[in-house]
Amino acid sequence: MNSNECLWFVYILRCADGSLYTGITTDLERRLDQHNRGCGAKYTRGRGPVELIFAQSCFSQGEALKQEHAIKKMPLKQKWQLIDHSQA
Questions:
Q1: Rounded distance, CA 57 to CA 7, Å?
Q2: Contact 13, 44 (CB under 8 A)
Q3: Pair 61, 3: CB distance under 8 Å
Q4: What ranges do the domains of the chain cover?
Q5: What order do you get walking across the sheet with 20-25 strand by strand?
Q6: Which residues pair with 55 in a beta bridge?
Q7: pTM to 2 decimal places
Q8: Which CATH class is domain 8-86?
Q9: Is 42 exposed, middle or buried (0-12, 13-18, 19+ CB in 10 A)?
Q10: SS (H, E, C) 30-88
Q11: pLDDT tens-digit profile, the chain (88 residues)
């Protein structure tokens, strides 16, 4: 990877109400802070604090967007299987 490229991440947050939020970013720490300050995604506002429970690196924004879309389409049970498998 050269200096003009950046690593993308697809991530899943667990909100304080137990719901899950999926998104993409190039900076997980900054994005998590934004969500917890209420200036992240509209969905997570009022559902904080949020906890990062899954992150997967991707080599391009396009790849991250495809993975995000695939995760958002998954049934909840399958999302939890993905999360559990990544923590094993």
A1: 7
A2: yes
A3: no
A4: 8-86
A5: 20-25, 8-14, 51-58
A6: 11
A7: 0.90
A8: alpha beta
A9: exposed
A10: HHHHHHHCCCCCHHHCCCCCCEEEEEEEECCHHHHHHHHHHHHHCCHHHHHHHHHHHCC
A11: 444 557 999 999 999 999 999 999 999 999 999 999 999 899 999 999 999 999 999 999 999 999 999 999 999 999 999 999 988 6
